[in-house]
Amino acid sequence: MTARVDRIALLAVPGLAYLAVVYALPLLLLLAKSVRTPDGLSLAEYGAFFADDYNMGVLARTLRVAGLTTLLALLIAYPTAFAFAMARARGPWLTVFLVAMVLPMSLGVVVKAFAWSILFRANGFLNTALQGLGIITEPMRMLFTETALVVGAANVFLPFMVLPIYAVVRQMDSRLPEAAASLGASPWFRFFHVTLPLTLPGVVAGSAFTFSMAISMYVIPSLIVGERQQTLSMLIARSFLYLRNEPLGSTISAVLLAIAILVVVSSSVLARRLGARQ
Fold it and tell me: Were both Cys, which of 10, 34, 241, 259 would link to 250 (CB 3.0–4.6 Å)?
């Protein structure tokens, strides 16, 4: 049995070798630049980065935007019952729901981000509609704001929140809430003690996906907020493309990578524990 397992494991060697060459090796070279100085290895770049108040402000803004984007995507994906409707749908309706979720993912991020930038303009649809309804008398400043960035990013990453929840709900036994109801449980009790605990693994997975992508997004903030509100990914691009400061760009990349890894590992551990409890 062991020999057979080892032979099967050999099938993963080509894929692992490919990832090592095209992903791991360039990443290691990039991270090496953050600690390599003319005098040898040093963490001076990290010390300078964390000592800069501007960099700390950008880091805080990046974490805040990623967190709010994840929260907004979760609030839209979970209570709208989209995932639950998909889980209960059958036949052609299931196909319609799946296409409605997957089709937006085929559009480029640039297209969707640019579309939101048009909507948020002073003469865009949102301001025009609000003025037509008499809610506002003059155009509101929507574009180049953090709120616009969170809304646009949540829309782009929404499928990555819905689909993990859908996968979990699809496997959930629909008779469990009905059994709780037959025992006299109220709708709120059934939700918080039956439905929510069973769907938490999907919530954790979707939140990890969304947060990891939101914290590293570059195109969306570039088109919606521009240079007025920098994020870590924008600082990385500026360091490499404009300042030609490779150590600084590598340092910020390492910080961003560390945050993403921490989120993914923490979510994996949490999802595993939640699965074990069930």
Answer: 34
